Each structure stands twice: as C-alpha cells, then as structure tokens.
Amino acid sequence: SNTLWPVEIDIDGDDIDDEGTLIQSREISPDLAYARLEDTKPRGVRWAPPKAFQKTFREDLVHDADVIGELLDRFGKWTPKTDGKMNTLEELVTEQHPDEKVLVFTEAADTANYVVEELRRRGIEGVALVTGNSENPTRIARRFSPVSNRSQPGELGGELQIVVSTDVLSEGQNLQDSHIVVNYDLPWALVKLIQRAGRVDRIGQKSPEVLLYSLMPSNKLEGEITLRGRIRERLAENAQLLGSDEKFFGDEREREVIRGLYDETSGYMLTDGVDDVDPVSMAYEIWRNAQDRHPELAQRASDLPNVVHSTRATSAGDQQNGVLVHSQTVTGSDAFAFVSPVGEQKQITAQEALTLATCQPSTTPLPRLTDHYELIAAAFDGPLRTPPGQATGALQGVRGRVWQKLDAHMDTFTDNLLFTLADIQTAHDAMNDRPLRESATQTLSKAVNERSPEDLAALVVNLWQDDMLCIPPQSTAQAEPSIICAMGFR
C-alpha cells in the first residue's frame, strides 16, 4: 500500500520515467529521507525546535498520513495520459488552434512547469515557460509577440507559439500578437482574471474578438467548491459597477446578467454584496477602459500633477453639495473624505470614492464652489486628521478583514513558543500604517477565509518578520499628508 513516511526528494529529475510519471521509490528509511531533505535545504522550509510541538502532533501526523495514503490507494497510479485538463489543452493547441498563438495562465509555478514539460513530451514545439524564477520574462514576451513589441524574433532565439505562465506575465507586457488566452486554473482575485485577458485585449490587437478558455474541474468537483459560480458572481457585481461587457465564461447565465445590466431585469442589486467587489479591481478596470477607449485623455490624466481639482453637477438622488478629497499619508496610504458646506464630514472608502466620482468624458465641468478650498482644509482638520493607525474603519478588502480577525483574536491570545502577543500587535499596527505588499495580499486573501485565527496570526507574524507583509514606509521628511486631487459637487 502507499505510505508517506519515506519521502523521496527528486533533485535532478532522475525519478521521472519515460511516461512522465514520478517513480514511487519507497525503499528508503525515514531517517535517510530526513537527511536528504536537510542536505538540500529547499527554499520555504523552516526548521522548528522539537519543544514547539505538542505531544499529540505526532499522532495527528500519523492520522493524516493514513488518510492521504488511503486516498492514494483509492486513486491508483496517476499518469499524465489520464489528465483531462492536459488532454483538453493539447486538443486546443493542436486541433482547434494549431497555427495560432496561445497564452496559458496558471496560478502555480509547479503547474506551469508540468504543463510545459508535458506539452513538449507530446511533441508540441515552440513552447516556453515564464514564472517568478524566469530571468528575462520580457525576452519571452518579445519572442511570443514580436509584432506588438516591434522586435525581430530571430534575434531573440526564434518565435514562440505557446507561452505558459504564472500571473507574473499578466502585467506590463504586450502580448497582443495572440488573441487566445487559456485559464488552466481560475484565480480567485478578480483583478488577475481581468489582467490575464488584458494582456491581449488592448490597442494593437488585430483580431475582431479575443477568445478566453477556462479549463474547469469536473462537474462533481465544481459542485463541491462552486469556484466558477463564485467567480461569476464577482464578475456580475464588477460589471454592474463598471459597465463592463467582457464575457469570461460565455454561458447563458452570464449573458442574462450582462443583458440585465441594461434592461434593469438583473437580479443583482447594486447594493447587494458590493463590499465583496475589490476596489483595486474596480480602479484597474476603469483605468484600462479609459486607456483603450480614450487614450489621449488617459495620457493627459497621467500627466496631471497633484493638487488638481474639478467640479461637476450632483447626480440624481440624495447626493449633496460638497468636496471629495483624495489624500496620501506620509506612509503611502490613500485616504478619502467627503465634506459638505452644511457641516457633514466623513471619511469614506476607496470604493465609495470611485462610485461617487464616476463620470464620463462628456461630463461638463462646472465652476468650483465658492468655499472649495475651505472645505478641503476642513477635511484635513477633520476626518483626514486621524492618524492612519487609528483609522480602522477605513481598512477595506483583504487588509481590513485580516486586521479585524487579528484584532478579535488578540483578546484571547496567549504567548507560545513561536511568537508572542507583542509580535502580533507589531504586525497588526504595521497593517494599519502601511498597505500590504501584493504578494501578501494574494497569500492572505485565501488564508483569511480558510485558516483559524491562530494559524492566520502565525502567517501574518511570519510575513512581518520576513519583511514581506507591508510596503516599506516612504520618507517621512514630509510631515503632513499630501493632496492628490479633489472633486467638487454642486
């Protein structure tokens, strides 16, 4: 039967047979397996002292190993030949689009490596890999998309037909020689899904349509995790807020949602679930649409200095006169406030600011309010005066959810051998003061929903100790927050 005790460390690929299957060597002893692991010192492995573990830990490990071993016995020997996703991808690139460039995205570097090696083993040529460990992703992008990058593929090592990449390639590269994007797996972060499509759906794309394929898990597994359904709900909310008409799945339900946005029959109300729409995704989509539809105006906006302002008419409803202020603290955190002439002053979220400031290129600017500057000053004397470390209500998204969960956990936490309450408090304060790094946001977005408060606290402290939790503070030579821009309403 299968057993997990003899761990085999494959350093040089010698344990891969001709079929592409990992040879299940189980003759070595646990001591030898441990010695091999210690000698290789793989990245990401941390050694904890024995005193850090409770006596029941070994029993739990044995139980987990038995359960996983039973699953392995039930599944039997796995080979790439039976991999449904891999077979579908092979059919896609060899039969449906044999002479077209295909861009394949996946979440994990291990998966990307596997897909590339398997495609090559199946005789498919012109395949390249891009992960966070790649030395020169831009070179690969230019070989894959020479026309849009104005490069000669022969000078770079030959033109590529297929690129398999993690999301490291979903930003900052021109790849529009291709119009086919394959999601080998689906990211939960909505902005990643948009960025993947945005690599080819941009100015310079010659195809009248961009094709997005998503390789879904089996219906039984999808029924358990409902990944597609949950992402589709987020896309629907995003489309309502932004007017986006992209189709990421293309099924009838999605078409009904998009149609309902225009004929007011949609079952999704603007106020339902809005907190789940990532404001970063909202802002990114707004800016991407502006660049695509109004490139000249987008460039003018990019060239504007700080402290600019404008004024527009109030929208229908209860919106009152006043000024919306966008400021940035000395630590680099963004803050927003709305101040009215009648005395209302409140700090608002980035999402609320995006919704409030929504307008079109055709929107007519109005003369500024007579007390425009006085209202801005009132914002800095009032809601924007609060130090960022105290503005807990302004923390949103992953950062806000993690902060709140840790805040509640600290009331019952007791020190352990790995970290103390003081460690949690320091990391907790850092999250208040500075935005999360992008890598930390991605890691914590899953952990905040899946991990216990104890495990989440351990993860946050580890990220903080490794200086991977928050963006480093900017120079504090400037003692006061700065004004980015302001918009008046009258």
Helix content: 40-55%
Structural class: alpha/beta
| Strands in their spatial order, largest beta sheet | 2-3-1-4-5
Spans where pLDDT lies below 50 across 5 or more residues: 1-26, 241-249, 257-277, 387-393
Major sheet size, sense and barrel closure: 5 strands, parallel
Strand residues, percent: 5-15%
Global Rg: 26 Å
End-to-end separation: 75 Å
Number of structural domains: 3
The quaternary structure here is single chain
- Globally, the shape reads flat
Q: Element order, helices and strands?
A: HHHEHEHHEEHEHHHHHEEEEHHHHHHE
| SS element count, helices | 18
DSSP, total strands:
10
What is the residue-mean pLDDT, rounded to a whole number? Answer: 76
What does this structure look like?
The chain is an alpha/beta fold. The chain has helices at 30-40, 56-75, 84-96, 109-121, 137-144, 153-156, 190-198, 219-225, 227-242, 252-263, 279-293, 295-303, 350-356, 372-381, 397-409, 421-433, 438-450, 453-465; strands at 102-105, 127-130, 162-165, 180-183, 211-214, 308-312, 322-328, 334-339, 345-348, 482-489. α15 (397-409) crosses α17 (438-450) and α16 crosses α18 (453-465).
